[in-house]
Design goal:
Elements lengths: L20 H6 L15 E7 L5 E7 L1 H4 L4 E6 L23 E2 L5 E7 L2 H8 L3 E6 L6 H7 L2 E10 L2 H7 L2 E9 L11 E6 L5 E5 L4 H12 L6 E5 L14 H14 L3 E4 L2 H7 L6 E9 L5 E13 L5 H10 L9 E10 L13 H19 L3 H8 L28 H11 L2 H14 L3 E14 L8 E8 L5 E5 L8 H13 L6 E3 L2 E2 L14 H29 L8 E4 L2 E4 L7 E2 H10 L5 E7 L4 E3 L4 E3 L3 E14 L5 E11 L6 H20 L30 E6 L24 H11 L16 H19 L1
Parallel strand pairs: 1-12, 10-11, 14-15, 18-19, 28-29
Antiparallel strand pairs: 1-5, 2-4, 2-6, 3-5, 7-15, 8-13, 9-10, 9-12, 11-20, 13-14, 16-27, 17-18, 17-24, 21-22, 22-23, 25-26, 27-28
Helix pairs in contact: 6-7, 9-10, 10-11, 10-18, 14-15
The structure holds ligand MTE, pteridine-2,4(1H,3H)-dione and dioxothiomolybdenum(VI) ion (MOS).
Length: about 800
Amino acid sequence: MKRVDLLKEPPKGESLPHDSAAEHVRGLAAYIDDLPRREAELAVTFVGAPCPCGRLDRLDLDAVRVAPGVVAVFTADDLPGHNVWGPILVDEPFLADDEIGYLGQPIAVVAAETRAAAEAARSLAKVEVVEEKPILHLDEADERGDYLGFERFIRRGDMEKGLGAAAHRLDGEFWCNGQEQFYLESQAALAEPRERGEVTVYSSTQNPTEIQKVVAEALGLGQHQVICITQRMGGAFGGKETQAAIPAVMAALVAQNTGRPARVVYGKDDDMQVTGKRHETRVRYRLGFDEQGRIEAADFEVRSNGGAYADLSTAVLERTMLHLDNAYYLPHVQIGARVCRTNLPPNTAFRGFGGPQAMAAVEHAMEEVALALELDPLDVRRANLYGDEADATGCEEQRNVTPYGQTIEDDFVPEMMERLEQSSEYRARRDEIAVFNEGSKTHLRGLSMVPVKFGISFTNKTLNQGNALVNVYTDGTVQVSTGATEMGQGVNVKIAQIVAEEFGIDPRHVIVMPTSTEKNNNTSPTAASASTDINGTAAVRACGKIRGRLASFAAEQLGGEGASSTDLRFEGGRVFLEGESASGVEFAELTRRAHVERIDLGARGFYATPGVDFDRETGQGTPFFYYTTGWCVAEVLIDRLIGELSVERLDVLMDIGQPIHWEIERGQVIGGLVQGLGWVTTEELVYGDDGRLLSDSPTTYKIPNVSDLPERLTVEFVNNRANWKNLRSTKAVGEPPLMLAVSVFTAVKDALRAVAPGEQVPLRLPATHEEIVRVIEQLETAKVGVGS
Ligand code: MTE
Ligand code: LUZ
Ligand code: MOS
């Protein structure tokens, strides 16, 4: 077994703060709504569908048009281009003009002199719909056979035969709720008309290229006539990977038709009501396993709630399918999956992109297997981890191949488990908790240790590419532009740091510029946690070109004839010739002289992730460049009478390779973990029968706050240098830690084992206080039933 050591924390003060840290705390970082008012700017809002399902019968906007302050009202008929879009399947109207897909779906756009006027006017719209009964739950859609896209499979070996041959069998069902992204800046866009019908859109989007495209298509323009600019987002979490599109089109439509700048900023209630969320998901499983709980065959049937249109649902579902193994070898396996169509807003990306649902399902199943065999769940997990041993089931040579055929390499998961099991004193605490649960009539404690293995790369191969523009100025300062967008995750400071190191200069002399489609074309969304990998590498390549030109020039200047540019070092703001005792030349001076001598100080770099490929027809391939992995141990305390849950302690150990920026990456780990904690415990989406989201504000939708965090929270990283094929042996960090929080869910399940030993624990996710009480009552009834 490989030995792993921990990464040593860097000395304090080494890395830069987040590039907007000072502006964030002083309220100076401008979001879309903070951009200075434009001359003659219009405020934009929309008229939403009054019910979730039916056919639009009559739309009377006369009262809206004549309301005070209203300047213009538009419907789908006013779109000069197409009224249909979608990132994968093209099935969603910008403005509903016939079928109503969900409650609040935009039908008409209202532009007024002030926001108050626009808001007041929109309520005057008369919308008549021939209503139909809405489908809100995935079970209902599944029964009716109402789906988006095709059924998909990943298969290996002979699942039925494997199930038949296994010593033990267990069937079960796991269900999890969706989750609201809860970014603080709502969906927003500002459009400015330019000459000849061209338009510039400032958008709070993870995907400026997509905005450029949809605005062009909706307005009947070429992509070259549209610029999209994104300086930053006030959080996105996947919610702005596609869904910034409709507000951007609204603003652009108004700007183009009125010739005036137009801004739309959704109110929080609108945003929560009409935008998509994490997918509610149901996983039915049939497992066959041996005495140690080692799985020999598994059959998974996955159903997700896609909402009314496809959006990213099929891609999210694909990632669910690709993560049902989590960190475990599943020999004979079948995974079948479908997206259910319902009358909710189209569900979309959310940190983890289908991975959390998969991991929660398989970890739920691991707990059930351990229960059935009366084993410690950690021992069952250990028995199932990917490893080098031979496969005994006739599926593969070794237990290191995923159901989709990718071989697991440089796997630190088993070593990390040993290490964390010891450092967190898992075994001793297990014993203590058993004694506690024996003795307490009022409280239950639970402990669970869970791995995460998250595949890095877009599963759509095309998206794994990026370009960067690096401009060096004659004072030795640098501007970098890439397709990456800043949403708080710190991609800018990471890229600035990398570029500064390439030139050996102070990172304060590098600025990462607002993202613009004018500088970087055909970019991918900032998503899949891969934006530093992709855009950072593209930036390094651009720097390499400039450095090469500077090096030839400097070698000539410093060493004269015959000096080789390969002997040059860029360090401490100076450029040296290797072996020269002289002090070299200042970087700024070198750039000035190079410019005088007519040397090009700008370059573009391009990067496409090598070796990734996945065939969705066969369900086989190598979709991921590598995996980011980790473990978390969670301990919870439950008040048995009222179901109140508190998280007592969390210990995290992750492999994120060699970090670029320790504090930023540690922040991502804690932020992701806490966001996951919300999903598995308190965040509950509740809908009325009319499809209205009842939990549509922070008072009814409970995201974690600081008091929900345990006093004891440790985060450590292993020192892994093996991921050399990626930029500086780093690993992506943005999404994976969210899934560490699955350990909190399984810790609750673990605690509830004590209520009726031997019974399965049918806990649904989130484990809210109410859900915990429901399960305790069910288990107590079962116990009485058995005893009598
Ligand atoms: N961190 C902050 N502060 N805000 C965000 O919106 N989004 C997450 C993650 N971390 C997010 C965040 C999601 S969903 C992704 S995919 C990654 O950041 C994207 O950025 P990266 O590729 O630079 O990690
Ligand atoms: N977006 C996407 C993603 O289009 N494809 C992906 O594989 C993905 N993965 C994570 C987050 N966003
Ligand atoms: Mo993140 S869900 O990939 O935007």
